[in-house]
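Hey,

Quick one before I head out. I ran the complex with N-carbamoyl-L-aspartate overnight. Inputs first:
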Amino acid sequence: MEGQLSVNHLLGIKYLTNKDLALIFKTAEYFKEIINRPIKKVPTLRDITIANIFFENSTRTKLSFELAEKRLNADVINFSASGSSVKKGESLIDTVNNILAMKVDMVVIRHSSPGVPVFLSNHVNSCIINAGDGTNEHPSQGLLDAFSLQERLGDIKGKKIAIIGDILHSRVALSNIYTLKMLGAEVKICAPLSLIPKHLKTLGVEIDTDLHRTLSWCDAANVLRIQQERIKDNLFPSVREYAAAYGIKLSTLNSLGKKIVLLHPGPINRGVELTSDAADSEHAIILDQVENGVAIRMAIMYLLSSKFKKHEK
Ligand code: NCD
């Protein structure tokens, strides 16, 4: 495969160019073909050691990165903050430097504080991949969502994409907005105003508080989880009332008179933002997103590794 990324780390979509997106998608298509072969492994990252450092809970993203690393034959070590020396008061830099002293080439990090991946990229000598920093960005998710949409809709340019739900606490929202805008989509955000950050309008998205109007407008809807663990204030009266106004049911989708593509990054609060009959309907591509996540992460790690392998020369 030809081409190089413009960056040495994956810190956020906002640092990428259109050329980077095209290169990642093209590479992911190649890896998707590989992981559907009877023998799913390639020796691409042999001799590379990758640490997955997770300070926040994760199921899909952690498993997906780990599987992508194993498919590429990397050596993998896993660290999660619970049960570690972080609980004894060790600083972030000390924790990471101790891991790097074990000759780690790449760090995949998830942390509850926005900016941690950027901070690490400035202070430790390793390639950093952001697997979600607080409410800021989740670049690999933004990429896999756009890749999954492209598979269904073709070119995203001019397509109408809605992002619905808890935008205020979501890192998936911001990475999706950056990716979709770069690809030329029209993006509409739909949520109660209390769940929409004030700066959002500056990103060139439309805002709508009406679910039915938004669904009637869009070609695809990415539905985000109500992040109850991050919600401190009374931003809506109750989960039941949120579900009544913004929850998507199969009957809502069937009433549109057209088929839309439904995405959700997981984990789903079934019965809150999506009912089970909607989540499991033919509209949903939620499991395609999971499959594509592995291919996208293989592409990201392959492309980044080729950059630092070159540096070492
Ligand atoms: C998301 C996350 O952790 O940001 N999940 C994921 O990575 N697949 C979204 C969420 O937690 O709701």
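Residues 286-311 form the longest helix (26 residues).

Talk tomorrow,
K.
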